[in-house]
């Protein structure tokens, strides 16, 4: 009997990306006692279960409102703050659209993308591979953060004062370059250092100050 793994996330509401008690209860009842559930550092749960049950279980979980994504070398669901300033002021609608645009894309190494609704950055965006921070009515994008290891580092400012309608194109453009030029198992932070942030701006057609 083989086992396969997939990722589960709760989606976004005002208050953040939080699993509801009924969702967790339903998750446990659907996947069964033999499944393994792993808590990840990127606000997803990894579910590992009998491959013969794989598709049926995913379909049932989707009916409960949970978001299902592949596990492994893919872009993860957006790691966002709790939108404590309110949906509009903290950019909740953009966060939802950005999550839909980025999650589940195959990449050379797992990619974490962060979002913060203000400069307080409670979601620790500068430790993510790519991060979006709302600054009043515009957005700053950072790249190359690394939270693990003795060489942990903060992300570098990639573009500032970006209007809302350009956030998704810029982030998906960064993912595309990583897909095309990243080496297998190369962390995004190492990729940014290797390519250089100046070259990354050049190949994506992005200026520092929008």
From TrEMBL:
Domain Nitrite/sulphite reductase 4Fe-4S: 93-205
Keywords of this entry: Iron, Iron-sulfur, Metal-binding
Pfam family, one: NIR_SIR
Cellular component per GO, a single term: sulfite reductase complex (NADPH)
GO BP terms in the entry: sulfate assimilation
InterPro entries xrefs: NO2/SO3_Rdtase_4Fe4S_dom, NO2/SO3_Rdtase_4Fe4S_prot, NO2/SO3_Rdtase_4Fe4S_sf
GO molecular function: heme binding; iron-sulfur cluster binding; metal ion binding; sulfite reductase (ferredoxin) activity; sulfite reductase activity
Protein name as catalogued: Nitrite and sulphite reductase 4Fe-4S domain-containing protein
Lineage summary: Bacteria, Bacillati, Bacillota, Bacilli, Bacillales
């Amino acid at each position: 009997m083989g086992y396969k793994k997939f990722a589960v996330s709760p989606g976004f509401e005002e208050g953040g990306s939080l699993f509801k008690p009924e969702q967790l209860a339903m998750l446990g009842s659907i996947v069964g006692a033999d499944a393994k559930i792993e808590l990840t550092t990127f606000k997803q749960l990894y579910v590992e279960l009998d491959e013969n049950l794989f598709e049926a279980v995913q379909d049932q979980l989707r009916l409960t409102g949970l978001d299902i994504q592949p596990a492994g070398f893919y872009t993860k669901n957006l790691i966002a703050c709790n939108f404590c300033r309110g949906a509009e002021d903290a950019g909740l609608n953009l966060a939802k659209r950005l999550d839909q645009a980025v999650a589940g894309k195959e990449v050379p190494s797992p990619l974490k993308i962060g979002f913060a609704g203000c400069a307080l950055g409670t979601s620790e965006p500068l430790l993510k591979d790519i991060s979006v921070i709302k600054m009043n009515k515009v957005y700053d994008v950072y790249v190359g953060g690394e939270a693990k290891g003795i060489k942990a580092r903060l992300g570098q400012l990639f573009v500032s004062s970006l209007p809302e309608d350009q956030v998704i194109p810029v982030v998906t453009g960064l993912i595309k370059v990583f897909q095309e030029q990243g080496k297998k198992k190369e962390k995004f932070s190492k990729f940014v250092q290797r390519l250089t942030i100046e070259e990354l701006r050049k190949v994506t057609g992005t200026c520092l100050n929008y």
